[in-house]
From TrEMBL:
Signal peptide span: none
Organism: Zooxanthella nutricula
Membrane-crossing residue ranges in chain numbering: none
MF-aspect GO terms: ATP binding; protein serine/threonine kinase activity
Protein name according to UniProt: Protein kinase domain-containing protein
């Protein structure tokens, strides 16, 4: 079912705010700058968010209160400087690395490695004992990461928190315990569409192909109906994962940006993969 723009806007007004809360800064002399914070516009090449971080009323229900800013400090590969990753989290979205039982590797990319794991913690009782997907950042031999890796991790966490749609992979939480910086989502056992078509050579019937196309269109329709519009910027078959019945869901939001104006400035990166652009 396609969610109407009106219902999407009414239920997801936090999209721009959440995506806009990710900030990192490097102080002079290589020291962490905790006083100044950069807006989404400065970080991702767009213009700054027109609204500040929303005020939280003390009388709100506990589960709706953003109780803490999680900060993970990582040493970058550019000089001996440090960078600071800040994401706005509810307490229920924090996951300890010790609560994940890694079962087997699934895939490895330039920015992360994906594992099949079992969640064994108590913070998310509905997921306890269930197989989940863990996407962990690939760090160098010195346990460092590049600014681009940091920006991708930051954008992906904040975007997942802002999206909620049946055609988008379900976000469970994240691990921010350096050197374990990871995103935990639901696990779909069918792998991605690219591997199904070109690696395993699955002869997928036209019915399933059309259903995949329709479902992806529904996910993009939902994202483009938010305020501000959320642009995936890396839509490709590798970022479409399948269940056992060839049901598909959209994942990987490391390139995602909110569209505050009529176009996205290309001051940071162009996003996407060349063969899909």
């Amino acid at each position: 079912m396609v969610m109407s723009p009106t219902s999407a806007r009414s239920s997801a007004g936090a999209a721009g705010r959440l995506i806009g809360t990710g900030r990192w800064s490097v102080g002079s002399g290589g020291r962490l700058s905790t006083g100044s914070r950069l807006s989404t516009g400065h970080l991702h090449g767009g213009r700054p968010s027109p609204s500040p971080m929303p005020h939280v009323d003390e009388e709100e229900e506990p589960e709706s209160i953003v109780d803490k800013l999680q900060v993970a400090r990582v040493v970058t590969t550019q000089n001996p400087r440090q960078m600071m990753l800040t994401v706005q989290l509810k307490s229920a979205q924090k996951i300890a690395w010790s609560d994940l039982e890694i079962l087997q590797p699934v895939s490895t990319g330039s920015f992360g490695e994906v594992f099949l794991a079992k969640y064994t913690g108590d913070t998310h009782p509905q997921w306890k004992g269930v197989e989940v997907s863990v996407k962990r950042c690939v760090l160098s031999g010195h346990e460092s990461m590049t600014p681009e890796q940091l920006a991708n991790l930051e954008r992906e966490i904040n975007t997942y928190q802002a999206l909620d749609h049946p055609a988008i992979v379900k976000y469970i939480g994240c691990v921010l315990e350096h050197p374990n910086l990871a995103i935990v989502t639901e696990y779909l056992p069918g792998g991605n569409v690219f591997d199904a078509l070109f690696m395993r050579r699955v002869d997928m019937p036209a019915f399933h192909r059309l259903r995949i196309a329709r479902t992806v269109a529904e996910a993009i329709h939902y994202m483009h109906g938010l305020e501000p519009i959320v642009i995936h910027r890396d839509l490709k078959t590798q970022n479409l994962v399948l269940d056992k019945s060839y049901g598909v869901k959209l994942c990987d939001f490391g390139k995602t940006q909110p569209l505050w104006s009529e176009c996205l400035p290309a001051t940071e990166d162009n996003g996407g993969s060349p063969r899909y652009m």
